[in-house]
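BUG: 3D viewer hangs when loading the predicted structure for this chain

Environment: internal workstation, default settings.
Expected: structure renders.
Actual: progress bar stalls at 90%.

Input used:
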Amino acid sequence: MTIASQLKKAINDQKSGCIDSAEKQFREICHIYPDHPDAHNLLGCILMNQGKLDDAEYFIQIALGLKPDVFFYHYHLGLVYALQKNWKKSKEKFLEALELNPAHVESYNNLGIAYRHLEQYDNAIITFNQGLQYDPSNSDIHCNLGGIYSTIGNVEKARNHLLQALKEKPDSSVYHREIAGLYQKRNDFTKSEYHLIQALKYDPECVDAMNSYAVNLKHQGKCQDAYHLFNQILENKNDFWDVHSNKLFLLHFMVDKTPGNIFQAHVNYGQKLMTHFSYQKPSFVPNTESKIRIGYVSPDFKRHSVAYFIESILCNHDLQKFSIYCYANVRQPDEVTESFQALQVKWRDIYDIPDQDVIQQIKADQIDILIDLAGHSANNRMTLFAQKPAPIQMTYLGYPNTTGLPAIDYRITDKIADPDELTLLNSEKLLYMAPCFLCYTPQASPPIKKSSIHKTGCIRFGTFNTLAKMNDRVINVWAGILKQLPHSKLLLKNKSISDLEIQADIQKRFQTFGIEKDRLIFKAYIDDPVEHLLLYQTIDIALDTFPYNGTTTTFEALWMGVPVIGLIGQSHVSRVTYSILSALGLSELMGQNEYEYSEKAIQLANDKSLLRYLNKNLRTIMAQSILTDGAAFTRQFERLIRQSLEFSPAY
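Structure tokens produced before the viewer hung:
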């Protein structure tokens, strides 16, 4: 058989799906004719499709070395680099392909994708539009342009391009997922749900769509439905670690899950993850500097609740004794990200960077203590921590429970949020701050208006907590309070309430417990921090949720002169408000049970002089406490860090 006929047969086998036969023949040609560029390129393409990326790169590189002026060799190598998430090299190869063939639309599309991952959004938009000049109806490019515009906040252009993509290809599961993501960012959860259902209609096995749908259901307060869907995903793909985390986080919103149930679920996850990585205790080279090197890992170095609490620590570390590194897994940086970058920290952007590359960086930085700030919240890096890149690892702040991960040594909390009887419900050893594990930096400090109760005589309760925390037990208790105070109203504000269909569903839930819709006031999400805080001036008493307490919302209410009524629970997630109020000497606002919770809310509503006193003095009480004293809090935090290092056998 001539080389031409053998090559033709191999290509035909490849096209007809006989991949093993095609690969074998390409390898034979490459062995007999080592100077045959097409055979090397085509073999590389087969290996790329099999996920053997290093081998694919090797053979396509040979093809390029033999014939560097063939554009699709460059294009194929660019695809390999993209799959390796080496976006810089990927970009270079697509640019070289376009120099040789300026009309190749797929090179424009993939170059735009590379620019997007490199956060060069202007270049991405220009590149995608260049591709559309050659193929105006290219649905993939329209979809990718929509994704870029969504990322940079141009909602209208994002929607237009995504709808155009769907017009060209209405049965695309990917396009429906993209526009669902856009609607979810706009807090339009019912439209997002529609497109996720469509995505699953066209690709019923798409676990990414199922995961997004489950998260959507959680935002709508349908936690049980979300739970079943997460379980369904894990039955088919048990190594989908993000889904494991999403499910673990969801458990805290579910009233039928006990602290013991939730702990065991975390332990089971930790065992699975550690087994997956075949964990072996690593050895470390001691840091020979006198300074302790601390690395913080977080997706939330941006406008996010976590930022309002970690800021006080990052701004107040003693830089004579500590070197601070921030490993930012931030998907969409913003002005808060920039403010963190401007601090005296060593900044490492790790978003979309593989674990192994980040681990190499952490080891090169000789980090002594690596602190997770996300737990099982969105965009966490639990798989990174499972591989133990630092001698001591801790978790703090961003998650209200144990991680379940044996590779994480310590969890930072306090004795109120985690009393002694809860230590057994943690896979980590607990380190205690006192009196509270939180230190708050207000987003803004708009002036507090005097209470208007004396003018209207009507009490307005309020909660700014997420809808998923508003279970039927909570609504039943709130309804009872409203019934006892017939002229009172309840203001509800969160992202989900921006959706009118969700508002209607909440009204029906309250009607089930005897409260008509005219007793409820809905306020949609407010992006501006000052306007958001000013809305607290329209309520007199904040009602906390249970079993999942507020954290940021509790601090915000108190900072704006609004007292918070809470319920003491049996686990960290349901004791955070108790910890905050105890630190301020306000534990009398906490109920031991649902009856006491209701009674305290009603008694406070009827005590107008106490309400006016709290309205006038709460901010001062907070400002004079360690809960807003970043310097004092950080000194204590650093002592805790030093103690863990002194007693650690890691080195």
